[in-house]
From TrEMBL:
It comes from Anseongella ginsenosidimutans. Keywords: Oxidoreductase, Peroxidase, Signal. It holds the Pfam family CMD. InterPro entries: 4CMD/NDH-1_regulator, AhpD-like, CMD-like. It comes from the Bacteria. Residues 30-94, 155-231 form the Carboxymuconolactone decarboxylase-like domain. This is Alkylhydroperoxidase/carboxymuconolactone decarboxylase family protein YurZ. Residues 1-26 form the signal peptide. GO terms for molecular function: peroxiredoxin activity.
Length: 242
């Protein structure tokens, strides 16, 4: 005869649920404590030196990035992405420096992995809609045509941002959103004087999976690569965001 008052099955179920929650909490804690990977660190350093035009330091950072496992196409993509924030001249000089690094490594018998190229875009919507959707994915808020602010004052720049930056560039899958945001905040830190945009993109970094600990590590890398003054501005912006 079944004992309807037997509490063992209920207790077993509760113990299983507690174990499951403990595992999830442990995984979340582990992720929160996980440092930036060597690849992510290299992306930050490469983008920082590209933005500042420090080609000698960039030369060394590019070789380190390849040694850390970044593909040729990932590094190319990071340098190209940087142009949207620091301009064509810095980006092109970065690419020219990278070409020199690859030639030197090839002469030494090193055949670097080029990795996959960007996949074709199959989305048939217009680029403005696609860019607005990308912004929603990055920020968690809808971005309709602006009714005020710089976008309303200059509708052209709003269109360029959504159609080119957040459609043409951000849609390319060679880099993840998190990697692209690391490039972005690194370049913004290097050029300086754009703290409101830096704060916005630090928030986006959190939205796309980077942790507060990793962003604190990012600030330390900026201090080491760009300088104390720039790192101080980064830390101030980061303190406000966190």
């Amino acid at each position: 005869m079944i004992d309807l008052f037997n509490k063992k099955p209920v207790l077993a179920t509760l113990m299983t649920m507690v174990a499951m929650f403990s595992t999830v909490n442990a995984q979340q804690k582990s992720k929160a404590e996980e440092p930036l990977s060597p690849k992510q660190e290299s992306i930050i350093v490469i983008a920082s030196y590209t933005a500042q035009g420090g080609l000698e330091n960039l030369h060394q950072a590019l070789g380190t990035g390849l040694d850390n496992g970044l593909t040729v196409n990932q590094i190319k993509e990071a340098i190209v992405h940087a142009y949207a924030y620091c301009g064509f001249p810095r980006s092109i000089r970065g690419l020219q420096t990278f070409m020199e690094v690859l030639d030197e490594r090839k002469a030494r018998g090193i055949n670097d992995d080029w990795g996959p190229e960007a996949s074709p875009i199959a989305d048939e919507r217009n680029k403005y809609e696609r860019g607005a959707e990308t912004l929603y994915e990055l920020t968690g808020k809808k971005w309709d045509k602006p009714e005020s602010g710089y976008g309303a004052f200059s509708p052209e720049i709003d269109r360029f941002l959504k159609e080119h930056l957040f459609a043409d560039i951000f849609e390319r899958d060679v880099l993840s959103y998190a990697e692209r945001e690391l490039v972005t905040v690194s370049v913004l830190s290097g050029i300086g004087g754009v703290e409101p945009m830096l704060r916005s993109h630090l928030n986006i970094c959190l939205n796309v999976g980077l942790t507060p600990k990793q962003l604190q590590q990012f600030a330390g890398i900026i201090k080491r690569t760009i300088g104390k003054q720039e790192a101080k501005a980064v830390q101030t912006a980061l303190d406000e965001v966190l």
